[in-house]
Request: fold
Amino acid sequence: MSIETLGNLGEFIGSIAVLITLIYLAIQTCQTVKAAKQRSNSDLLTRRQELMMLLTNDPDFIEVFSRGCSREKLDVVDAQRFPSFGMNLSAHVQDAYLQYQAGLIDRDVWEAEQAILGVCLTQPGFLDWWEHGRQYVTPDFARMMDAK
Reply:
């Protein structure tokens, strides 16, 4: 076997090794993206559960939320709790929107998150809050929610 033949064989083997490495890296990248999407979905669901726990497990807050949504007068403490929930909820849904735009969550997940804020935005007192609360989200997100 000549040196030239050995050189050609070495180049061929090297090319095969590069191809195998590229395939391996592509598989690893796909797995990393899939894991990131799963983490995003899981994080969103965890935060949604925490927000919804207030509305299902805290009778005091359920009353505050109901009174705030129906425009009833709230005392000083509750007048802070109601908008704080609005800020937390809108920030949560905006995060889902940004993750959807970045391709980290699927359309179905985004639409489920959006529906939660959408339902709140049908309540008169929450709409009142939204007029001031929209300043806590990006203008793009606020416009999108207003269009719903």
Summary: Residues 3-57 form the longest helix (55 residues).
